[in-house]
Amino acid sequence: MKEEKKAPAFLKNKLVKNLICLVLILTVAGITGWEFYRFRTYREEIKAPDGTEIQHLSDYLPSLKGTAGDTEIYVFRGEQDGGSMLVMGGTHADELAGHLSAIIMVENLKVTRGTVYVIPRANNSGFTNNFPQEASPMYIEIPTANGTRTVVYGSRATNPVDQWPDPDLYTHYPSGQGLSGAETRNLNRSYPGRENGNFTERVACAIRNFINTNAIDLTIDLHEASPEYPNINSSVLHERAMKLSGDASLELDDLGISMRMEVSPVNLHGLTHRELGDYTNTLALLMETANPCQGRIRGATNAELALMGKDPCYVKASELGYLYIPYDENGVAVEERCGRHLQAIQVYAEALGWVFGDEYTIEMTGLPQYNDLISASVGDWLK
Amino acid sequence: MKASILALLVMAAVFAVLCFAVKLHISLCLACAALAGCLVSGNGLGLRYLVEGSFSYLDTILVIATAMIFMKVIEAIGTLEAISTVILRRFYRRPALLLICLTVLMMLPGMVTGSSTAAVLSVGSIVAPVMLMLGIDAVTTASLVAYGAILGMIAPPVNLPALMICSGVDVPFVSFELPLLLLVLPLAILLTLIMGLKKAKKLTKEEITAHLGEKADRKYSWRLFIPVIVLVLLIVLTRVFKLIPDMAMPLMFLISAAFGFLSGKKLPLIATLQDAVHSCLPVMGILMAVGMFIEVMTLTGVRGLIVAGGLSLPQTVMILVAAVTMPLFGAISCFGSASVLGVPFSLALLAQTDITIAICGLSLMAAMGDFIPPAALAGRIAAKTAGVEPYSRVVRRSLLPIAVSLVYAVLYILFSKQIAGVLL
């Protein structure tokens, strides 16, 4: 006769079983809770030159003070008067090249004419969490001449700790457009924002107030998207920025950088290129580069993919004709993505003066050109 | 890519062994498979990924838990019995009309909340007893209840899978109402009648009196209906008229349940709460494990492998491929299917179809995953409501509505430009 397998005697005791489960749960909760807490409170270093003027979003909407929505605005004023430009990175904290380009600007930029404002962590709360099911890396380590720099790789959305719960259906204010519930925590679906709105709407409102108060002439929102997304390697712009963007695109073409122009759809609400264009006097545009670490077709997700942009699944998708950029086994490294952003920012700043007259001119130096970046490493431009 | 294939094989093997040989609960099988995926891909125990993934469906879990509390409260005070008896007393002579009304009733919560699970949990317990009393067998009842709830999730105004796809391809969720109605209503009416009418009896007055027993003449106090009236009011005021801020479904369920104290019946609170949580614990466990599983699929590249594999098939059969892979992925999560597969398929179909109509069709394909095990949330809860075990019996009975829906969705996408020409 077959002997029946019996559970160990101590496991038959319900109290013992429950205690074992409780200890296991507490152990996992303790370990991961500490990891999430450390991530939420981690502040990456941004080494602005000594004496750089730093403002905060809460200066433009006091209710953000002391919250995770408050963030630094780095101000670079030239000795001569000229135009003004705002560059935002980190609207989506999982779009590495946008965030990194803004950091490179803060650490290297010198402005001789006009004023340039840089916000590297536009949705600061997005840098304190990762989006579930995306398996994103928390930190990206970049070697520099002065040691390894750690940059945060966050989430597309505000941390639920700061804004929760999501509605089933997000109704955009003021258009009334319906979006999926999770988009309520997406800064780039929350413009123009409102003072008494939810957390993300208040961040959007502060940015709008900042633009209005400082009469910003040009606003550039830096993004990345998956290689299968149609609007990559492009500028999506408000219709008032058409002339500027046309001239800038021609100049970028001359430099060997193809940058498509897409006009912001009038019925797609909440985005910088639509609402900041409609609710402020700024010329609003959004730039996208291709980041395979964000796509649905990507293979294993890790920091290396975010930096090197090499992915065999995308090579296959490219061969099948599903991508909107040329893509091969060399990938799309962060140097190329930051290079595109930084070169385009410089060209747009120059174009402001050509298109609207001398009083709008912005003159700046110190930033790497596209070719400087693709022949080196982003770490060479971090202090 | 080899590492991703290895991870896929190991995860599938661990799941299969634990599920079919060891016969562990599905939530544990999925969690162990996810853990194995972490280990084999060199990510150690990957505790951070497992916990992060398990938070994916926190909101859904709260909806399920609170909806179950609401259902147990109205069951305890006798509202469920009252509603099903009143419906049967009024409509027993016209089974076809009654069946269609029941299906529309079944669809309503999904239309407003966007969740088939919430629909089964809230109205399933009212509809299922009436169907059973009509003479429809329990398996068909479970299938019809789940199907109504799933179609409700796809019907306008709130279709979450479509909203997720729209977000991924930057298409505004506007002008979807008519195409979604045309997609859902014919299926709802046709399949309900095909599956239910044959089995539903046209009862006589005597039969219904005998069937209901003492309930046939019982007078029900209006106070029994207070929790249901409050719930409907809250949903209508927040979602339809938008007169008060949206307080989210969990709070609506809890507030409505609290009104059960005004029913005049004794409400054993602690026992009811315990019973509710106990009833939905397995479903909540499955949801947490599904979140872990998808997170590890993403981490290891298994997700990309599946998507790239789907896209690599000939473009001419792309829509058919979507009709097979989306419900299959929906077996893990219908929302995951919409997000992971729906977005790339939409982008691939962008040039050849009218994208609004195509997204409607793709959302229906993803929704059919709510029938497919292991997760099969709507189906499992419907089976439990109708008292059917094992769930595989409901799956077999649901093959017809699943197949018809998928064929209809394929046709919808194939003829999207013509449909758009008429509707949009």
Topology:
The complex is a heterodimer of chains A (383) and B (424).
Chain A: H1 9-12, H2 14-41, E1 53-56, E2 72-77, E3 80-88, H3 96-108, E4 110-119, E5 139-144, E6 147-152, E7 169-171, E8 178-180, H4 199-213, E9 218-225, E10 234-237, H5 242-254, E11 260-263, H6 272-279, E12 283-290, H7 303-308, H8 312-319, H9 334-356, E13 363-365, H10 370-374
Chain B: H1 2-21, H2 26-40, H3 47-54, H4 58-76, H5 79-91, H6 95-113, H7 116-133, H8 138-154, H9 160-169, H10 177-197, H11 205-212, H12 226-240, H13 248-258, H14 269-300, H15 302-312, H16 318-330, H17 334-349, H18 355-367, H19 377-386, H20 392-397, H21 399-414, H22 416-423
Number of helices of chain B: 22
CA-based shape of chain A: globular
Sheet-strand content of chain A, in percent, reads 15-25%
Structural class, judged by helices and strands of chain B?
mainly alpha
Global geometry of chain B:
globular
Overall number of structural domains of chain B? 1
How would you spell out the order of helices and strands of chain A?
HHEEEHEEEEEHEEHEHEHHHEH
Provide a descriptive summary of the structure in words:
- The complex is a heterodimer of chains A (383) and B (424).
- By secondary structure, chain A is an alpha/beta fold.
- Chain A has helices at 9-12, 14-41, 96-108, 199-213, 242-254, 272-279, 303-308, 312-319, 334-356, 370-374; strands spanning 53-56, 72-77, 80-88, 110-119, 139-144, 147-152, 169-171, 178-180, 218-225, 234-237, 260-263, 283-290, 363-365.
- In chain A, the strands form 3 sheets. In chain A, strands 1, 2, 3, 4, 9, 10, 11, 12 and 13 form a 9-stranded mixed beta sheet that branches.
- Chain A starts with 8 loop residues before the first helix and ends in a 9-residue tail after the last helix.
- The model of chain A has no long low-confidence stretch (mean pLDDT 94).
- Chain B has one domain.
- In chain B, helix 8 runs antiparallel to helix 10 and helix 8 (138-154) runs antiparallel to helix 19 (377-386).
- The two termini of chain B are 43 Å apart.
- Chains A and B meet through helix 2, strand 8 and helix 8 of A and helix 3, helix 9, helix 13, helix 14 and helix 15 of B.
